[in-house]
Each structure stands twice: as C-alpha cells, then as structure tokens.
C-alpha cells in the first residue's frame, strides 16, 4: 500500500513506483499489465522485498514484510512467496530434480524428505518422467514447468510470476497458463503475475491492474472493469479497429446474455444491424466482448437506449 520506489542513480533519480496501492485477494489470480518501463518488475520485486520500497508497506498473508528487520524473519516470510521468471533461471549443471531440490537444500530439508517432495512437485507439474534430464534437454515449456515446481518447493501461499510465458510459443503459453490456473484452484494458490500480453489477462486473471509511468491507472476485477464505461482495460482486451462507417457504435458486453440481443433489435425497433468487427470471448466463465456495429433506421436512438437499459455499454461517436 502506498508503495513508492525511487532508484537513486549517480546523476539523477528515477521514480519507478509512485504511490501504488494494490489489493490482491487470497486465492485469486491478479495480473498487472503495462508498457515497458511502467514499473511492473519493480512492483513485483518490492512484493518479496528483493527491492526495498522507498516508502509504503507490503503485506503478504497478513504479515507486514516491510516492518521485518531481522534477516531470518524476512527469509522465513519470503519462503511463503514463490517466484517464476521469464527466462526460467535454472541451474544448467543440475538435473531437473536437482533444480527443484535446490531451495529445499538451502532451507535445510533432510535428504529423504527432499527426494519425496521433489517427486511430488514434478508430478504436480507433469514432469515426473524427466527428473534426471538436464535443462538443456528440455523444451521451453518444460523448463518453465521446472521453474514453477521449484517456486512451489517451499509450499508458498503466493506465487509471483514475472512474464512467465513471454518467451514461449502460443501453444506452450496456453499449457503453462492452464497449469497456473490448475495450481491456483487445486492448491488455493494466490498468483500475482506481470505480463505485457492482454491475452494472459483474458485467459486466467480474476483481477487486473494497468500500470502507467509507475502508477496504477485502473484496477479491479476483470469483469467489473470490462463493464466500466471508458475502461482502458476493456479497450485493450478487445481492441476495435477504427471505423468511419456511418452510424457505427461500439457495444461492450460486460456479461453473458441469454437473449439474442441483436436480432431483438431488428424485430423490436425495425432497425438494420450490421456487425463490422470485434470479438466476444469467455472471460471468467462469462461471454464478454466488444463489437463495432452499424445500427441504422428511424428508431435507432430507441434501439440504442434499449441496449443501454440491458446493461450493455453503448458508445456512439459524438453522443
Ligand atoms: N535497478 C534499477 N536502477 C535504476 N532504475 C531502474 C532499475 N530498475 C528499473 N529502473 C527504472 O524504473 C522504471 C520502471 O522499470 P521496471 O523494470 O519496473 O518496468 P517494467 O514495467 O517492468 O518494464 P519491463 O517490462 O521493460 O521490465 C524504468 O524507468 C526503469 O528504467
């Protein structure tokens, strides 16, 4: 809360976080998006105190990490926070099992318990048969599975993910996102991830924040944000190509509708409806999306008011 981070360089200061408040609920997947330099990585590093914020507090699982002054206390708290990296950060000289065992060795877990735990973790990420392989023998997706297993070794409550899928192809990205979603559901794991891919937000995030120049521009549950007029997140999740078609309107569906709204319009108001473009997809179990639609006819205004009354967001240029 109230996180501020100033990097002090030789000749100047960089304000990387400017009063950032983020409230991640227990058990949810929270995505932070933003352009390069927005402060996402700094935020993530401040959450596990790899970077000490200049001001503000970080509370994880009810504990104020920023108030902990004893290194041992902070180390113990950090064990409850796992971290997954974009480029996997595996030790090339160690096998898959050796990589996952590493944090357990550091924590002083006895050898027999360690071995059992490593196999459990590899099972969890679907890599039990690759325990003896070396990182160089693995695909990108498998490497990230090792990274995730290692991050879960100390049984964390929270997983931080720094662009975990950015180095992966679309199909592998999909399978890693599915794994994160499964771990979130099965273990009740809270996940805070940073990404520059809106698709990641669409696919697995319950909540999201958009960061710009060190500040949170917009934050909340994804479905709520999609239903908020003028939401940057909604526009970024479902970008509409510009259109100069006459009588075009942008319609946002913030939830699923049982009734066929567009055909109702033509029937009830005798207007012509022409879908120009857009997308409707399933987000958090709801069909949501945005469409560019041309609505023409004498009763156009009444038709648009009808959609508005149904809870759709109707944006008319110049209205
Ligand atoms: N260790 C550092 N020392 C000085 N300035 C830094 C340091 N780390 C980040 N910055 C600066 O802080 C700002 C925020 O950087 P940060 O890496 O957090 O952004 P980001 O949104 O994660 O971007 P990217 O996706 O490119 O990593 C940038 O202006 C960056 O140059």
Automatic annotation (TrEMBL):
Single GO term (MF): ATP binding
Superkingdom to which the source organism belongs: Bacteria
Keyword Translocase: yes
CDD domains noted in UniProt: ABC_MetN_methionine_transporter (cd03258)
Keyword Transport: yes
Limits of the ABC transporter domain: 1-238
Keywords, alphabetical: Amino-acid transport, ATP-binding, Cell membrane, Membrane, Nucleotide-binding, Translocase, Transport
Gene3D superfamilies: 3.30.70.260, P-loop containing nucleotide triphosphate hydrolases (3.40.50.300)
Record's protein name: ATP-binding cassette domain-containing protein
